[in-house]
Amino acid sequence: MSRLLCKVFPLLSLLLYCTPLIAQELTLDALMQELHQAQHPSRHFREVRESELLFAPIRLSGTLTYTNGRLIKHIQHPFNERYTIEGDALMIEKEGQNQAKRIALTDYPPLHTFVTIFRASLEGDKEALQQHYRTEISGNSEQWRLRLIPRDNSMASHLRSVDIEGSGSVIARFIIDEQSGDSSTMELGESTP
Amino acid sequence: MNRRTPILLGWGLFILLSILVLMQGPEVQSDLGQFLPKNAKDGPDLLLDTLRDSPASRLLLVDLSGAPAQELAEAARSISTTLASSPHFQHVLGADSRISREEQDLLFKYRYMLHPTDFNESTLRESLQQRLKEIALGAPLDHQQLRADPTAQYRQVLQHLISNGGPDRHLGVWFSDDREHAMLLLHSAYPAFAMDEQEQALAAVDNAFSRLEMPQLKLVVTGPPLFAVESRERIRGGAQQLTIWASLGVTLLIFIAYRSPAATLLVAMPLFSGIVAGATAVVLLFGQLHGIALAFGITIIGITVDYPIHLFSHGGRQYAAQRIWPTLRLGVVTTAIGFSTLLFSDFQGLTQMGLFAISGILVAAVVTRWVLPVLPSTEHTIHSSLMPLINSTLFAARRIRLGRLLPLLMLLSVAYAVQQGDDLWESQINRLSPIPAAQLEQDRVLRDRLHAAEPGQLLVIQGDNLEALLQQSEVLVEQLEAAQKNQVLKHFNAPSRYLPSRKRQLEYRQALPESEELIPQLTAASQGLAFRPGVFQPFIKDTIEAKALEPLNIDSLSGTITGLRLNSLLRRHEGGWYALITLGGVTDEEAVTRIASTTGARYLDVPREASEMVKHYRDEALQLTGLGVILILLVLALSLRAAGRLFRVALPVFSAIAVTAATLSLLGEQLSLFHLASLLLVLGIGLDYGLFFDRCQNAGGDCSRTTGALLICCSTTLLVFGLLAASPLPVLHAIGLTVSLGVLSTLLFTLGSGTRT
């Protein structure tokens, strides 16, 4: 009896261990947990923003760093500016200006929206997401997409949806669709050295 | 018997009519402003107006703490929304109190009139690049607005109007730097001294807070309206307790002295009649009665308890009343002369108090003379067990022969008082404030955190019309902004910040380019930028329309938050307009005074001016009192017709007053108007003592019954005012201590100056 158990147990535990990898259905809980447990290194990004006001999209690139609740979006091209978001304060540092400008993040609702979503997804904070958005999840853990649709009217009046796509614990892109028809796609690339 | 009926009927009718008048009369007032003088020494009562109702005196500061920032912000927003719609507040600042759609449209329409522009190719290009960045960041929400206002002129107008020196915003709410405190600034709809209304406003704040149901939060409210209401509560609460204890104590004392329940009732009768008469007289003459005049008036008429005591000690019957009447009458007349100085006061509250006291004392005397003697069981004598005590007191007092020392004592006291000079007098109003020091400190901390103006320093400018005033304000703003950079002051607020002068608005309009200039500039500026052609058509249209706009005026701002803020800094007088420029955190007064003198403004340091004013009124009161004293001495001399008797009556009480003043000063008290009024009361009581004692001495009696009466009178007074002296409230303490010391020394001096029989 005990010999049998000795043989079966490793097999059983191996099976159990592998279950998440071969799961067909990805749940929000599982995704959130995975994102929460993973390390999020500083990464390069490319962002394309299209607007009805513009005849050509704006392309931005730079690095995105998230550590200990602090998000730094460092735009390096086409201009050099650093946006540091800590708590709900936004600090803007511009090239050639030694004094940083501090603004309340709430004065920039769309940026605020983005930061809240970004922070909540990296923190795996399901409640924060579900409080403001309806969530739809599709794909599997290898290739997933989380769609967020705003719940309250004031947000829904400017934001249509936010899609977060990724693979495993790595977020690949954010796609923001606004009611005005403007949209932005941010691709997250290699981690920075 | 046949005289009793008409007298009692008359008295009953008088009380009934008085009560009817009082019931018809208006409510008891509690506006402390009436205790400020009616007119100032020079010209318009600007300072008083400011003291009564400066913008800063209406401010309530609200501080929320004890929870994470997110919760604090939500709570602040919720309270702000509730209070903004309440009739008790003009406006609520701190939790992005959204301005109405109409006001937004108005400010947007007039954006080029309210703030300067500088349109040229390079500034326009800079603006467009900035807008591109904002689009890249996803910042602009309203494409329509961006197309009409690519230079973000409207945003600058708003920032200028709203930020205006407030603390940092966090989650759209004012927060302290450490994010532990969320803060709001409430502008009450009422002046600080309108206490009943302020009480409602404060209750509205408490309600809004408790409706949150967030017990973990700590709410701190401070500001002049709260102080006014709390002072009243403290004084009222303190006075209520004191009244109960004092009444019980006096009743017990009278009972111990006479061992008769009827005596205790009879003693209260003149007092009661006096209070009713005093209140009625004030209501009939002024059409209203101030709560403080009522309270202090009752304290003053409290001395009429002495009248029936004198009556009893002389037998209590008709003949006794007749016998003591000349003495009592003289005492009443001199006391009334003493308090008539209050009638000439510029403080309506003090005038009311004087009228209340005089009519109350007169009626109490009349009741003692004619009503009491016709009542049954008025024969009361001091209980025999007390007589040995009284006799030995009199004997001891006479043995000391204090009388000889009185001139020396008086001289020493006066010399000491003169040597003290100005130190003898209290010049700071707030030293007598019933607000604990810790709370004042909390107010200072909150004010600093909020960058809120202290109700202290102001610049006042005057103009024939609003336009002149606004232009003057603009000149001042430029100078103050420069001074702000030099750390002369931390912040300020001026009317031209909310509405530029017509002249300035026309200059702003003039600076706008014509369309044939603007279109090529804009085309050149957007060269190489990704904006779709024609996207800024609304901007061109608005700029052309702005060139034809008439300047914005104060009437079009009515009903807006901007208009409210503007109006809170303006005062209209018959002669023209005044504007207040509130200053905060002034570190260099000289620099501010210099700015004032070069711009034709007047610098007002309200606390200092107020203490100057108090000094002025104190001097006036002293002069009037001096006049009163001369009049009293004249009346005494005419009635007593003997220098020796005049000396015997007046010397003890005047010595006692001098000694009391010197003792108070030695105890570290500085004398205020309240002390002065208390000394007047001592004079009134003391002259009665002197007159009655002189009367029995003159008649050659053994004076033990008079002494007994004086001892009972003095004991009741000491009991009441001793309780007041023990009060932690500075005003009550001052009155209590002064009267207790004064009455005790008067009694000692009076008995001690008696001649041996």
Give an overview of the whole structure.
The complex is a heterodimer of chains A (193) and B (757). Chain A has five helices and eleven strands; from the N terminus they run H-H-E-E-E-E-E-E-H-H-E-E-H-E-E-E. Chain A has helices spanning 2-18, 28-37, 109-123, 126-132, 153-156; strands at 43-50, 58-67, 70-77, 81-86, 89-94, 101-104, 133-140, 143-150, 159-167, 170-178, 183-191. In chain A, strand 3 (70-77) and strand 4 form a beta hairpin. In chain A, 23% of the residues are buried. Mean pLDDT of chain A is 81; it is low at 14-23. Chain B is of the alpha+beta class and 757 residues long. In chain B, helix 19 runs antiparallel to helix 24 (589-599) and helix 26 packs antiparallel against helix 27. Chains A and B meet through helix 3 of A and helix 6, helix 7 and strand 4 of B.
What is the compact description of this entry?
Chain A is an alpha+beta fold. Chain A has five helices and eleven strands; from the N terminus they run ααββββββααββαβββ. Chain A has an eleven-stranded antiparallel β-sheet with strand order 6-5-4-3-2-1-11-10-9-8-7.
Output the keywords.
heterodimer, A: 193 residues, alpha+beta, 27% helix, globular, B: 757 residues, six-stranded antiparallel beta sheet, five-stranded antiparallel beta sheet, 64% helix, elongated
Terminal CA distance of chain A = 54 Å
Largest interface: A-B, 33 and 23 residues
Judging from the principal axes of the Cα atoms, what is the shape of chain A?
globular
Question: What would you call the shape of chain B?
Answer: elongated
Question: Structural class per helix/strand content of chain B?
Answer: alpha+beta
Helix-residue proportion of chain B: 55-70%
Q: Stretches of chain A where pLDDT falls below 50 for ≥5 residues?
A: 14-23
